[in-house]
Specification:
The structure is a single chain. 17% of the residues lie in helices and 13% in strands. It is an alpha+beta fold. It has one domain (7-59). Strands 1-2 form a two-stranded antiparallel sheet. A hairpin with a 6-residue loop joins strand 1 and strand 2 (35-39). The longest helix is centred in the last third of the chain and has 11 residues, at 49-59. The radius of gyration is 14 Å and the shape is elongated. The two termini are 18 Å apart.
Length: 63
């Protein structure tokens, strides 16, 4: 891989991430209701770091 290659060059899954929060209040995880790293004002699906990791494992490309 060259220095200009990124993770997006070979993976076809588009994963949009909500913006990070500068501080509380944090949005609740939609799966376990734990605080996330995202602002409460974000409209959309938010996952805590643990659920985000588990979701990534579940949907990762197999190869």
């Amino acid at each position: 891989m060259s220095d200009t290659d990124t993770d997006h060059d070979y993976c076809l899954i588009d994963v949009s991430r909500p913006p990070g929060a500068d501080g509380p209040p944090y949005a609740a995880c939609v799966l376990c209701q734990e605080p996330t790293e995202h602002p409460e004002s974000y409209k959309g699906i938010t996952l805590c770091p643990v659920c985000e990791w588990r979701e990534a494992e579940r949907t990762s490309c197999s190869g």
